[in-house]
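User: Can you model how adenosine monophosphate sits in this protein?
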Amino acid sequence: MNAPRRQPVLGILGGGQLARMLAVAAAPLGVKTLVVDSAPDACAGQVAPLIAADWTDNDALARFAGDVDVVTFDFENVPAESAQRLAERVDVFPAPHALAVAQDRLAEKTLFRECGLSTPDFMTVDTRQDLDAALAKVGVPAILKTRRLGYDGKGQFRIRSLDDADAAWVELGAQAQAHGLILEAFVPFERELSVVAVRGRDGDFRTWPLTQNWHTDGVLSLSLAPAPAIEQLQERATGLARTLAERLNYVGVFALELFVKDGQLLGNEMAPRVHNSGHWTIEGAVTSQFENHVRAVLGMPLGDTSARGFSVMFNWIGDLPDATQVLATPDAHWHDYGKQPRAGRKVGHATVCARDRQLLTSRAAKIAQGLERQDQIAPLYTKE
Ligand code: AMP
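Assistant: Here's the modeled complex, given as structure tokens:
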């Protein structure tokens, strides 16, 4: 009799839709997953075993570390101490030091600049006086952001004129003491792009084609991949992502969010995990970001990151629309995260694929029509 076969177990801190899609991608690789989330009904628990425990529960984390071969994250704001404590017991990818850089907008922007990626002008703000000084230097319009714990436009205040400074301080002043703030120049960008990249344990590095993104109220609403007119930008973005990854000795998938201004790339932020703007890779690329993240953190060879054709991803925020139109469209793919509807919550997405842009835009337009999202589809035509 052969010895019983032992399958590798991937531990994931955070049990949202990213953990859910990682678990689904891990299964065909023969990889089991175990998820930790403080919410017992976290949506990854519908597809993988879930431990309901707080990330600061040391006993629960110690048990979790004993049950898995490697730990990763579906959320970048996992406390750095929890990640560090786990790293003392088990392999953790991305490593806590990389997570720490991406958790702090100041450290992140400083690293971008060191790696040759320009950023919007910024100044740190710890007091009300600092805010006045920063506004004098950075100018208006500007965005005041928390240095830590911000994502999807949360913890941000748009300052249109100097008269808004008091209101901004009322909103975010309390955060200044706890986490520090940063004032960033508002960039009138031509467009927003992201590059999703993966680095293996052996240093192998790949990027998916640049994706163009549209946000509504700071939350991703639509992605188009490959983004149009990116010939030179792709090479530059890939080079920058590689430099960042090597500097951080990064293992796994990450996304670099970029603004294009006067044809040049500016760094907005880095997400140290699989990313919403890479969801199209599930059906639109040879290997998805989720599969490559699992491969990377477990030390398997990375898969091909080429696009199979052209893809548009619609994000479903707050509530799911009727699925009928998407399901009736050729090469359109429905993703329901199994969450309860709630304002501002990411509850699902759909990806539409096609072999050429014309077919893609006509398929996407048909879906958009029923959703009152034609205004968002319009840029797909005009940007080509
Ligand atoms: P963030 O959470 O920093 O990625 O911000 C969410 C979204 O707000 C971005 O994707 C942009 O659409 C917008 N945004 C953030 N920072 C700036 C900026 N400095 N200038 C213009 N738009 C910004």
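A couple of observations from the model: The longest strand covers residues 252-261. Residues 120, 143, 150-151, 153, 184, 186-187, 192, 215, 218, 257, 268-269 surround adenosine monophosphate (CB under 6 Å).
User: Helpful, thanks.
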